[in-house]
Design a protein that fits this description.
It contains 5 helices and 18 strands. The strands form 5 sheets. The protein has a 6-stranded mixed beta sheet. It has a 5-stranded mixed beta sheet with strand order 6-18-17-13-14, with no helix packed on it. A 3-stranded antiparallel beta sheet has the order 10-7-16. It is globular, with a radius of gyration of 16 Å. The structure holds magnesium ion. The site of magnesium ion has 7 residues, from strand 3.
């Protein structure tokens, strides 16, 4: 699978960061973490532009989490934060679709989130904007409209662990490779999705200029 907008890269590992905005941690009743909360999604969860989100019958509550997504363009291990942005090939907007009821059940039993986060199509992404077209990565933001109503807005400046810190942290554990993705965590405003919902997520810069657009819909 080629990354949309970055055809020289093939999809690698999909890393995700949880609770990276204090306001979102609070809205779900979670403590603000002292180090990044990391989980993974399978490649089969990635939905390319134009593909719908399929809501699994086994969940009664599937939420949207709109996130800035980083595409890694170069291998890296034990990268310093100061060098981290040199690994980035591009930025997109994506949705960390979450079966919230299954996640809550897993949390209560101290079990992993792989099922709640990992269904097919649970990681839709927009086209990637090449990193050299993003002047200020720390001023990126995302918005999400569902059926024309604004549900989420967030700015990278609100992250507890900014993009460079996330790359440094992950590369201290995993060898990052070209084509790997990092979902960087959701700002507040997460909420439920139902079949028929139409979603428009945007990656925005500075005052709100749209850099990338993710249009999708939910099917059962
Ligand atoms: Mg998330």
């Amino acid at each position: 699978v080629k990354l949309p907008g970055l055809p020289e890269l093939s999809l690698g590992t999909v890393y995700c960061i949880g609770r990276n905005y204090a306001e979102h941690a609070r809205e779900l009743g979670n403590a603000v973490p002292e180090e990044p909360v990391v989980f993974l999604k399978p490649q089969s969860a990635v939905a390319l532009p134009g593909s719908p989100i399929r809501l699994p019958a086994v969940s009664k509550r599937v939420d949207h989490e709109t996130e800035i997504v980083i595409a890694i363009g170069k291998s890296g291990k034990n990268v310093f934060a100061g060098d981290a942005l040199a690994l980035v090939a591009g930025y997109a907007v994506g949705i960390d679709v979450t079966a919230r009821d299954l996640q809550e059940a897993a949390k209560k039993k101290a079990l992993p989130w792989a099922v709640a986060k990992g269904f097919d199509t649970f990681a839709p992404i927009s086209e990637f904007v090449p990193a050299d077209r993003v002047a200020e990565p720390f001023e990126l933001g995302v918005t999400l409209e569902v059926n024309g109503q604004l549900r989420q807005t967030g700015k990278a400046s609100g992250m507890i662990f900014p993009v460079d810190a996330l790359i440094a942290y992950l590369s201290g554990i995993f060898t990052l490779a070209p084509g790997d993705l990092i979902f960087t965590g959701t700002p507040p405003g997460v909420g439920p999705l139902v079949a028929g919902d139409r979603l428009v997520a945007r990656l925005i810069e500075g005052a709100g200029e749209s850099l990338a657009l993710l249009k999708t819909s939910c099917i059962s």
